[in-house]
Amino acid sequence: MATNNKLFLGTGVALITPFRKQQDTVDFTKLEHLIDDVISRGVDYIVALGTTSEAATLTEAERSAVQEFIVETVAGRCPIMLGLGGNNTLNVTDTIARTNFDGISGILSVTPYYNKPNQRGLLQHYRSVAEASPVPVIIYNVPGRTGVNLTADTTLTLAHECPNIIGIKEASGNMQQVMDILRQRPDGFRVISGDDALTYPMLTLGADGVISVIANALPDTMSQMVRLALKGDHKKALPLHYRMLPLMNAIFDEGNPTGVKALLELQGAIHNVLRLPLVKATKPLVNKLSTLYNDYRG
């Protein structure tokens, strides 16, 4: 499949889902403000209904409503990548068949979790997803969440054999694996950081950007750092990386999106409400984030 050579290049924001303080329903007013904010402050694309959105705890009706609202609010200002994956291949392909892809530029499809398929099973799973999807597919490898690692060899097989698989969000934390993929990938195959703190070093090795959690709260700084690094201006990019690094690390102290939602509330952007089994950040973490954010602002 022919794709725009700038599609999913740069900074994507793994968008959170704001909830209302009392009713625990989606706060579409704050979601609209957040979308407008991250776009105006420089992100290159939005990832809807990914892990950070708490999609696993949204109802099917809520997921549909959130997707539709994001598409309407973005209104073509930037590409949208839709989280769409699972550990039941038939269910994933059936969901793809039922999905409205108007306004959607690609899907982010996580490796099957819990049932721990081997590499042959992962190959067949992604071949099925690629055949079913009317838009380009980005693989999401996050073994810390799924319990299975998509190896470099399997990734490269998919990259070379499936034209509709155009990239991978790599969140294994294994830099040797990242380098193996970067060294042998076909032209145009995106390698996207899935770890905020590893984005700068991955960019220096040749990666194409990041799908970022911290970009919900610091979209301008993350976007600027990524653009500078992609241009090879490491002298200016590296200080931005180190400026954000303490907050990048701290927001994951108690899981995601627990930390970034606490930070966004400190900024006055949302109410800090999560759905069980996720819970709000502890007071010590909120105090830590407040101190780090004040340091960040200088």
What distinguishing features does this structure have?
298 residues; alpha/beta; eight-stranded parallel β-barrel; 8 strands; globular
Describe this structure in words.
- It is built from 12 helices and 8 strands.
- It is of the alpha/beta class and about 300 residues long.
- The chain has an 8-stranded parallel beta barrel, surrounded by 7 helices.
- The longest helix is centred in the C-terminal third of the chain and has 17 residues, at about 235-250.
- It starts with 9 loop residues before the first strand and ends with a helix.
- The model has no long low-confidence stretch (mean pLDDT about 95).
